[in-house]
Specification:
The chain is an all-alpha fold. It has 50 helices and five strands. The strands form two sheets. The chain has a three-stranded antiparallel sheet, with no helix packed on it. A hairpin with a 7-residue loop joins strand 1 and strand 2. It is rod-shaped.
């Protein structure tokens, strides 16, 4: 504030004072100058720059102590109002009645003109005086009064001819004519002529005190200090108590730079009654400029005791109090200025300006803007006021949370760098940093707050904001440093919960990155602290619910989500979305569908809810709703490849492989993605289109060349090149060599794993007749731990169960080919619990044949009889000893397996059979629709930045707005209460439906029109309809009617299992 006043009222050099200082800021002080000297007030350019003339003359042209009326009254004519009879032109009126009547008429016009002048009607007065001059052109009274009227109207040039005529024709009639004539020339800017005219008057009237004072003031205006001093001393020689002379002499000394003696001279002026007030004001002004505030304040207090309505005195007293940082008393003085300066309003504008500046310093920005409005309404606003007003409007925009507008205004202030706001530039950066933090632009917030530290120390609020923004920026780059920033911020404002929330967010990030639950536990602990401090905050319960979800404590998470929903002012879609995720993970799919429906009700644009609701519907076997929701998802986002991938996954999960493949093609038509190509390759695996699968994998590799994809491509290429009918042995040896190199790879594929490489090598060794090597590779294809826990495997590991069953089957064949029938039987028994249907029948038949070879007829009879129940056709064919009895439990119809030959095997003395090792493409499971730790839910772990306002006055943790202290312990958000809630009893169960507590527009999600969507989305949407048509209910396998009776079959099995010494059966 001091800088503001220094800029506005900067003291200038002594010699340049009269050139640079405006007349409005100084009070002139010549009390006995002729009344016409006030014409200076009508000429603002040159003469108004004088500091040697009194402001008292601005109030009225004719000082009351000097003149009683506006008529020209000579010395000795004060009461008659008439000029002497001896005046030349009046002699002709002495004779006759006619002349007497004419003289009376003219006197009447003169008196009427004088009356009009007193009333301020100068035009009417001029008409009266002109009538007199028409009759008597040389009438001195009419000429002078007419000149005065012109001067009153500001038409000084028109007054000069009349006054010159008076000085020429009547040079000694009245000495005041010379002063008036000088004032007219001053008004026209001709100071030299003005001095010459007043000097002519002094030659005629050498003891004319006011003439000397006037000429001295003119010399002061011309900076002819020595001549001015001579005139003032001349006046004092005639009248030693003339206060005006002392005032003028003081001004001359000021002009010469002798402030000390000027102050002493003003002491003499103060002793004069007529100049006491002006002298006190002038001396206070000089002392103020010299920064002798206590002395100046004493003079101003003395002045106000004499005149308690003196606006200028109050104004300078306020400035002194401002310099002393006594803002409250300064404000009171400024209000007095505004009150007592209601007429001229000379000091009202500066007073309101300083009053507004004080409000800014006190951070009362609403008071400041109101003060500036007062100045605008009174039409006394200053240019400087607009500068401060812009600053205040910027801060009010922050208070009103119009952050973008505030940033624009503050940026404009910073760029202009106005001198008046030099003291506040640091605050501008601090406030703009606050605004950037509030809109989560933390990078710019940190930059601004760092800039503040270059010029000033950050206050606690700005330091807090800096730590928060810095922590947010470091959350992913350096989590530990971010946690330290948030911890320091919490120490600055221990009652704020946001630092705990930010710490929890960083810890959840660490938990997801490092897959360590201990970080999630720490996050929950921080949120527990936050809730203890502010248990009314809805978002705190929501964030803790997310932590509990990550910790797989779904029941507790649902409870927190319900609390968040209850405490929230409005229904928030993401609250219901996250609770729906929890319901889905604990298999409460109906409740999850209900929550996802609410999400669509609250936010029609959140189309991903269709995806989640569709998954729940599919898990409930409601394929109709699932297809409907996925169709809506595609219509909502027709050009997003992801939704077409989702559709393909759904079709794949429902067994519509061909339709799923088309959906993936549609996804790639919008945007080629690795996921779509890989999923399409899996579809081709399921349909045994190996070459097409290889092409899709290559397409994926072109987009993202990863080692995993390269591994899959190379293994699949080896398989395709391994079945050369012309030279199978050579092809197998070459393929085995390539597979051996693949085993040295550090990575596995997305589809093919190392176990598959060992598996394929084992099969190739089998065909090469190297059974021991085959056994070694096959054993590596199945982990020992998997083999031990094979029968305990969960449904989720079904793919591994089938793979292990096939590997065990191949091992059994290896032992069979080397006549280790007992070992072969053991491996076949291991897989009995993993197979069913005809596959089980084939395995049982093979086991029966092995038991026949081991001469275990009873066991063989039971096994073959049991096999007949599962595959009567194969068993009947074997009993009848038909040629080429094929026992192929696994992959019998695979295009890859079909290229490899069958092997005829004779098990003991039993009828020979055709076998083939089990192998093929990896088992491809459909995409899982189950809900686990959804990545989507952690994206909702958002902390809204609530920076601390740096403009607030804080006293011991509380905010001081005006004179009252308001506690800010919690700053709670007002909760909305349902009027019906009080009448309802709260249910204690965790999984109570939210519909009992909230009201919604509808229980069904809004439908979207199809007409707005492009045609190219229809192929994917039509696939759901085709899949519904193709969907068939599950049909059990029925055994074919046997050609023989049950008795005949039992007899033949018994005969087959009975050992014979001589069996000449040929294969």
């Amino acid at each position: 504030l001091n800088n503001i006043n220094k800029t506005r009222y900067k003291s200038v050099g002594r010699q340049a004072r009269y050139k640079n200082q405006s007349f409005e800021f100084r009070r002139k002080f010549t009390p006995r100058v002729h009344k016409s000297f006030t014409c200076y007030q009508d000429v603002p350019n040159y003469f108004r720059k004088n500091r040697s003339f009194s402001v008292e003359k601005s109030r009225k042209y004719v000082p009351e102590p000097r003149r009683n009326n506006a008529s020209f009254r000579g010395k000795g004519m004060a009461y008659t109002g008439k000029f002497p009879v001896s005046c030349g032109a009046t002699g002709e009126f002495d004779n006759g009645k006619e002349n007497k009547h004419k003289r009376e008429v003219m006197q009447a016009w003169l008196e009427r003109g004088s009356s009009e002048m007193k009333l301020g009607r100068f035009d009417a007065a001029l008409e009266c005086f002109k009538k007199v001059t028409r009759e008597e052109p040389n009438n001195p009274e009419s000429l002078y009064n007419k000149a005065l009227c012109f001067m009153k109207k500001g038409q000084h040039k028109k007054a000069i001819p009349d006054l010159l005529s008076l000085t020429r024709d009547h040079p000694i009639i009245n000495r005041e004519v010379y002063v008036s004539l000088a004032m007219c020339f001053v008004a026209t800017g001709d100071y030299t002529t003005a001095v010459r005219q007043i000097s002519r008057g002094l030659l005629k009237f050498p003891k004319y005190v006011e003439g000397y004072i006037t000429r001295g003031q003119l010399y002061n205006s011309q900076q002819k200090w020595d001549k001015a001093i001579q005139d003032f001393y001349k006046a004092l020689s005639f009248n030693g108590s003339e206060g005006g002379a002392y005032m003028g002499l003081a001004e001359s000394l000021v002009g010469m730079g002798d402030i000390r003696n000027a102050v002493k001279i003003l002491e003499q002026a103060i002793s004069c009654e007529k100049t006491c007030v002006q002298a006190l004001m002038r001396r206070a002004h000089l002392l103020f400029d010299e920064k002798e505030y206590l002395k100046a304040l004493r003079d101003l207090d003395c002045l106000l005791e004499v005149d308690d309505k003196h606006a200028e005195a109050y104004y300078y007293k306020a400035l002194i109090l401002l310099c002393q940082e006594n803002l409250n008393d300064a404000m009171l003085c400024l209000e007095q200025v505004i009150k007592h300066d209601s007429f001229e309003k000379k000091f009202t504008g500066p007073a309101l300006y300083n009053l507004g500046a004080i409000k800014i310093k006190q951070k009362d920005f609403y008071g400041a803007i109101y003060t500036f409005k007062r100045a605008t309404d009174l039409e006394v606003g200053l240019k400087e006021q607009q500068v401060l007003k812009g600053y205040v409007e910027a801060i009010l925009s922050l208070i009103k949370r119009k952050f973008k507008d505030a940033i624009t205004l503050l940026t404009r202030i910073i760029k202009k760098k106005h001198p008046l706001l030099k003291e506040y530039i640091g605050n501008c950066y601090s406030y703009r940093g606050y605004a950037y933090a509030a809109i989560d632009n933390h990078e710019k917030a940190v930059k601004d707050l760092q800039h503040v530290t270059k010029t000033q120390e950050l206050d606690n609020a700005s330091t807090y904001n800096y730590l928060i923004s810095q922590g947010v920026l470091l959350s992913h780059k350096d989590p530990q440093s971010a946690l330290e920033c948030f911890s320091k911020a919490s120490e600055l404002f221990p009652k704020n919960v946001e630092p705990f929330c930010y710490q929890a967010k960083v810890q959840v990030f660490l938990a997801s990155e490092k897959n360590e639950l201990k970080f999630a536990e720490k996050a929950k602990s921080n949120l527990d602290k936050a809730i203890e401090m502010r248990d009314s905050e809805s978002e705190l319960y929501f964030l803790r619910g997310l932590c509990l979800y990550y910790l797989e404590r779904d029941s507790d998470a649902i409870e927190d989500f319900e609390t968040a929903i209850d405490k929230a002012e409005d229904n928030m879609a993401y609250h219901f979305l996250c609770r729906g995720f929890c319901y889905a993970r604990v298999k409460m799919f109906k409740e999850a569908i209900q929550d996802f429906t609410i999400v669509l009700q609250l936010d029609e644009n959140y189309s991903d809810a269709y995806y989640y609701r569709g998954r729940c519907a599919l898990l409930l076997d409601d394929t109709s709703l699932a297809f409907s929701d996925f169709k809506k998802l595609i219509l909502a986002k027709p050009e997003e490849a992801t939704v077409h991938i989702y559709a393909g996954n759904l079709l794949m999960a429902t067994g519509s492989i061909e339709d799923a493949c088309k959906a993936y093609k549609n996804a790639n038509s919008y945007k080629q993605t690795v996921e779509a190509y890989i999923q399409q390759a899996k579809c081709y695996f399921l349909t045994n289109n190996v070459n097409e699968a290889l092409e899709e994998l290559k397409n994926a590799y072109e987009i993202e060349p990863t080692p995993e994809l390269l591994f899959d491509i190379e293994v699949l290429s080896i398989l395709l090149s391994s079945h050369n009918k012309e030279d199978l042995k050579k092809a197998l040896v070459k393929s085995n060599s390539k597979l051996t190199k693949m085993l040295k790879s550090e990575t596995e594929g997305l589809i093919f794993k190392m176990k598959h490489v060992h598996w394929y090598k084992g099969v190739f060794f089998f065909y090469l007749g190297q059974f021991q090597k085959a056994q070694a590779e096959l054993k590596q294809a199945m982990d020992k731990k998997e083999r031990l826990n094979l029968l305990k495997s969960s449904k989720a590991d079904r793919r591994f169960e089938e793979d292990n069953a096939e590997v065990l089957y191949n091992l059994a064949l290896c032992y069979l080919m080397t006549d280790y029938y007992e070992a072969a039987s053991m491996h076949l028994y291991e897989i009995m619990g993993l197979v069913k249907g005809k596959v089980k029948g084939k395995v049982l038949l093979l086991l029966g044949l092995l038991h026949i070879s081991l001469e275990q007829s009873e066991e063989a009879k039971e096994l073959i009889t049991e096999a007949y129940k599962y595959d009567n056709k194969l068993v009947s064919k074997y009993i009848e000893k038909k040629d080429e009895v094929k026992i192929l439990p696994f992959h019998s119809d695979s295009s890859l397996v079909s290229e490899f030959p069958l092997i005829k095997v004779e098990i003991g003395n039993a009828h020979c059979v055709m076998i083939k090792p089990a192998f093929g493409l990896p088992k491809v499971l459909p995409p899982s629709m189950d809900f686990g730790k959804e990545k989507e839910i952690l994206l909702h772990f958002k902390v809204k930045c609530k920076p601390e306002a740096p403009w607030l006055n804080r006293v011991k943790g509380a905010i001081q707005f005006t004179d009252e202290i308001q506690d800010i312990i919690s700053e709670p958000i007002t909760e909305t209460e349902n009027s019906e809630k009080n009448s309802e009893t709260e249910e204690s169960e965790v999984f109570t439906s939210a519909f009992d507590k909230r009201q919604y527009h509808s229980a069904v999600a809004l439908q979207r029109g199809d007409s707005e969507h492009p045609r190219n989305t229809e192929p994917t949407t039509e696939l759901f309809e085709e899949a519904m048509k193709k969907k068939e209910s599950y049909q059990e396998e029925y055994l074919e009617e046997p050609d023989m009776s049950e008795e005949e079959i039992a007899r033949r099995i018994d005969a087959m299992c009975t050992p014979f010494e001589d069996d000449d059966d040929d294969c």
